[in-house]
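Supplementary notes for students who missed Thursday's class. We covered one full example, reproduced here. Read the sequence, then the structure, then the short commentary at the end.
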Amino acid sequence: MTKKIIVLVSVLYSFNLFSQGCSDAGFCSLGNITPHMDHFQEQKKVNLMRFGLSYGRGLRSVNVYNPYIEYTRIVNSTISFNTRINFMAHAGNDIQTGEIGDVYFTGDFKLAPKFKTVIGFKVPLQQGAKVKRGVTLPMDYQNTLGTLDFLWALQTNVNNFHLAMGWQIPLTQNANRFFTTDFVSSEEFPTTNGFRRNPDVWMRLSYPIHVKSWSFIPNLLPIYHLGNDSYQDEFGTRKQILGSRGLTFNADIQIDYKLCENNIIGLNFAAPLITRDVQPEGMGRKYVVTLDYRKSF
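Structure (token representation):
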């Protein structure tokens, strides 16, 4: 078993180094969506805190840093609530940005012994229209997509497999005004003036493996963007961004270690296996590495 785990980690780590492109629909990584928070279920604690830091190698030579804090309150055996605050920082092509971007509010409701649903909203604290040197920045440098999103997911556990599927739909759109000709760089950023983003649907399949104080959780995460996004050209005509619709298929592995009672540290490696042709929303990643600490009390 140990040799198999080592091989699996090595394979996924190789994807992190050499894959091209990644997309994240947003709330796929919330604590009440992913199976690694299940470690605390038997401890009967009502408060869960999670602190994390992610580094992602973005497209078009942009480095993305994402510190976050997450709090879960368990009301009873069938209801809990989760809040997450995201800070986003970007660096690359002589541009640096950094601010709090989004706050997630979700509720977790058990429907049956093996089924639960998550409902909530992603609330932007910015409009996705940050300006630098008098020019609106591309979406790759924005600290948020700038949209108020409705979030819904359904989860189940069957024979130790954890299956989750969800839907993320923007209820508003952002105020980005970027044109490709506004930004001189060795990389070409797509025009997102008057950007209109379409919904995402996704599924996560996980299989936790527990070895004493260690847990290894390989995940597969396909995300499908339901339509081509669009922008307005300089004449006010709306145009589709061809190739922005389609599938991104990600693989990742979560490695957890139980430090002591009620305390866990985790490391996650993620990378895409399949990507959309165009990712104008700026969420594309070649790979992502995340370190997080969780405590129940």
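Commentary. Residues 2-278 form a domain with the Porin fold (CATH 2.40.160.40). The CA atoms of residues 12 and 196 lie 34 Å apart. If anything here is unclear, bring it to office hours.
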